Amino acid sequence: MRIITTAFYLLLISYETVTEVQVQYVIGEKGENATLQCNQPSVNASALVYQWKKHGAVVAFQKSSVPSNRLSILNNGSLKISVLQYIDGGQYECESQTAGAGSWQTSSKVQLQVAGGPTNVVIDITPATALRNGTLYVKKDSAVSFNCSSESQPAQNLTWLFEDSASDGAVDKGFIAFSRSNIQPSDQGIYTCLAQNTLSKRTEKKNQELLVYYAPERHPECSWEPGNGPSDFVFICTWYGGYPAPTLKWREVLKPSVIAKGPTVNSTPQETEHLEVHVNRLILEDREEVKCSGSHVTGAQSSCSFTLRIPYPLGDPMVTALEGTSITLSCNEINSLPPAKTVWKRNNTVINSTSKYITSENNLTYTLTIVNVTKDDEGILTCYSENPLGARKLEVYLTVKTTASNGGVVVGIFVSILIIMIGIVVGVTVYSKRDRICIGSSLSDDRGDVISLVDSDEEEIFHDAVPRLPPLTNGHATTLVEIHRIPSNEEAADSSEYTDQTEGEQ
Asked: Per residue in 110-141, is it b (16+ CB within 10 Å) or e — as a string?
């Protein structure tokens, strides 16, 4: 009998070892509800009583008169935990007993893990400026740092996505960061920070749109176009190449605070790359400077300007033409700004190109060619220039000469040519006889002197008459220079009279 009892005890121990309760793992999320299942034994479940322990201590009892606020045992023995907290995590055991019996049997072991998050995903991009709609912008070529963080229990995985593509980053205790040292327009787009709880696999993400702003590299350009009428013009200001569009404004330099009604050069600032303003001569003055000022959100500022000038046509006011020929009148208009519209007029009527009158323009030179000029063409023709500042004109008086009236002109030209030829002949003759004229003038001088040079070595005939100077050290003789005075006519006459008187006395 003792042997049978011992064998039965060993068999019972073996059964309990084989049927050892396995641990179940349950993951719950903070703030939510969790239910821990209790395995029912193979007895009448209605006769069982349940209790749950946590780390060996009873935390819930089915027949308790003071039920827990968050923990309760269901009819099937399961433990329900409401509004999970991190402190609810741990190993639970479900025990049961038959009503009235004194021993508890462990039916289930459950390991509860409470996961929290990820929550409060935050994106920090610096340096960046926020727009009203929450979009951020940075300046081109700047260094930008991208940071992302969130709250999670336990650890989490953080990932940056740019336009749905993964970006390089570093994960460090719920914090991920990367940077761009020289950000470019190609870096503009939507950045996403993706956070995933490593336990619950729950994922949260946050998007942030980033814009890259840059100012135009060139200066604004000022130009103009004709308006609907001769007194109207359109000022145009363009500043291309930036993002977003700059703010442009036309203003008068000397009167920046004046805001006129109707068409005016003062305009409200607009975010645009192309700004047009219609103006007329009522608000413009000669030599007045107008400026287009441009500013960009990045802080860049630039401008262009020009000085207004009224037209001032230039040309020859008097022209003469020969009847039956063609004549071309010209007029230059390079002073006006904006450029003037220039036409030729006669009797306040615009002259259009015909076979008789041909008008043309080349580099702001306006010409009028009159074919087969007649006396009817004689008179005043007007070069008329007008821009928004005003109008000015150049009057050209055309004189037409007939063929008969040109006879005197031809004779006068012939006589002039003849006089010039005679003068040339006389000049050439005098120049060729200049030596004789000079000699004759010398001989007629009443007090002229003659210098005679006598070579003592060559002319022996004057050896005794010409005194000699002492010889030089080189042994050569020296020539003596005698100066004889040629008497004038009066002296010659006196000398003759004196000779006659002397002879008479003798």
From this structure: bebbbbbbbeebebebeebeeeeeeebbbbbe
Positive/negative CA dihedral, 256, 262, 267, 269: positive
Contact 369, 289 (CB under 8 A): no
Neighbours of 377 (CB within 10 A): 18
Residue 213 near residue 140 (C-beta atoms within 8 A): yes
- Asked if 155 contacts 172 with a C-beta cutoff of 8 angstroms, the reply is no
Q: Specify the range with the lowest mean pLDDT, choosing from 79-93, 293-307, 464-478.
A: 464-478
Residue with tokens 């787009």: 189
Q: How far apart are CA 253 and CA 249, in angstroms?
A: 12
Please say whether the beta carbons of 60 and 82 come within 8 A: no
Measured CA to CA in angstroms, residue 237 lies from 219, 258, 293 at distances of: 11, 20, 9
Structure tokens at 383: 């070069």
The structural architecture, per CATH, of the domain 318-401 is Sandwich (2.60)
Domain parsing of the chain, residue ranges:
20-115, 221-307, 318-401, 449-485
CA angle, 352 then 356 then 358, to 5°: 50
Show Cβ contacts of residue 248 under 8 Å, excluding neighbours closer than 6 positions: 220, 237, 239, 269, 270, 272, 273, 275, 292, 293, 294
CB atoms within 10 A of CB 438: 9
Q: What is the DSSP letter of 352?
A: P
Q: Would you list the DSSP string of 24-43?
A: EEEEEETTS-EEE--PPPSS
Say which CATH class 221-307 falls into.
mainly beta
For residue range 33-85, list pLDDT tens digits in order: 999 999 876 556 666 888 999 999 999 988 765 566 789 998 888 999 999 99
Q: How far apart are CA 121 and CA 133, in angstroms?
A: 19
Nearest to 138 by CA among 181, 170, 168, 193: 181
* Residue pair 153/162 in contact by the 8 Å Cβ criterion: no
Q: In this structure, what are the phi and psi dihedrals at residue 276, rounded to the nearest 5 degrees?
A: -115, 140
3-state secondary structure 210-262: EEEEECCCCCCEEEEEECCCCCEEEEEEECCCCECCCEEEEEECCCCCCCCCC
Cβ-based neighbours of 222, under 8 Å, separated by 6 or more: 235, 236, 237, 292, 304, 305, 306
- Which CATH architecture describes the domain 20-115? Sandwich (2.60)
Structure tokens at 450: 């003659």
pTM metric for this prediction: 0.58
pLDDT tens figures, 212-267: 999 999 999 998 887 777 677 888 899 999 999 999 988 888 775 443 333 455 56
What is the residue whose two structure tokens read 């000397």? Answer: 254
